Target: Peptide ABC transporter ATP-binding protein
Amino acid sequence: MLEIKDLALHFDTFEGTAKVLDGVSLSLTHGDTLGVVGETGCGKSITSKAVLGLLPVPPARIPRGEIFFKGDDLLKKSPKEISKVRGTKIAMIFQDPMTYLNPVFSIEKQMTDVIIRHSRQNGSPLNKKQAIEKAVELLKAVQIPSPDQRIREYPHEFSGGMRQRVLIAMALSGEPELLIADEPTTALDVTIQAQILRLLRDLVNRLNLSILLISHDLGVVAKLCHRVAVMYAGNVVETSTIDRIFTAPLHPYSQGLLRSIPRLKKREDSLEGIAGSIPSFINPPKGCRFAPRCPKVMDICGNVKPILTEVEPGHSLACHLFPACRPADA
Ligand code: SF4
Model:
């Protein structure tokens, strides 16, 4: 359904060119739930925004790569064509619902505007009354109690979790096939977080949706996704099933991420983090971008970039510890 191939993304800044994505490859099949994890600034949100053409061009530019959605290269579409894909084929929900809901308009006004626009794009335009009925149905689907009354309220009258449900309902209004959820639970407390993840899982099953979940939290990804892609400094470094990554990750960065998750059964004085920080995107390391922080770094790592390679069925990684990941001329 979605295939990102060797995507590079650069930002031209006064200090130089920031090479923010350095050949990202990801794929998602119909009905799949893929989590993308990594530290803040690793390029996961930027990747999802590139899919929907939401990046400012300039300063952003895409020097190479392809993004296929159901066989069409989204990067070859005009702004008008991509705006038709947004919402009706691929929808997105974001971290902070208050930023995306207008405080001066009722939920009814905001939802019906979106529903009417999508219905026109889908070729079966709805009138205002039909749009209100659909909005109430959607609020019911995301488990908002008394939706026919609450629809007349304003965003400030909803709790954080309820606002996120409203945004999910709006995202579903165009009947998309793929939902991109960018840190959808980060701004919520833990119990509400669990409810939203349960709701998303329920929607995936009921509506046969595919989900691309962006999160810095492996635990959140594990609750919703079957597969995970670990990103580091603009590269995908490992992809596999969630079980495999949790039980036996192969990439040193994935291993470090896993060690930094607090566990109830293990009493520790302090958590084990990954020493150092993400490198500069303007002058990134020439070879493996994780080399300055990697406990297993070797001579080859500083000069040669490892290639993301399938090392066992359904499990790919980019690390020179596995000779299959070395380019032929290395
Ligand atoms: S390629 Fe080298 S530096 Fe990079 S993760 Fe593997 S061992 Fe570490």
Observations:
- The CA atoms of residues 249 and 255 lie 6 Å apart.
- Residues 252, 288, 290-291, 294, 296-298, 301, 306, 319-321 surround iron/sulfur cluster (CB under 6 Å).
- The first helix runs from residue 44 to 51.
- The longest strand covers residues 16-28.
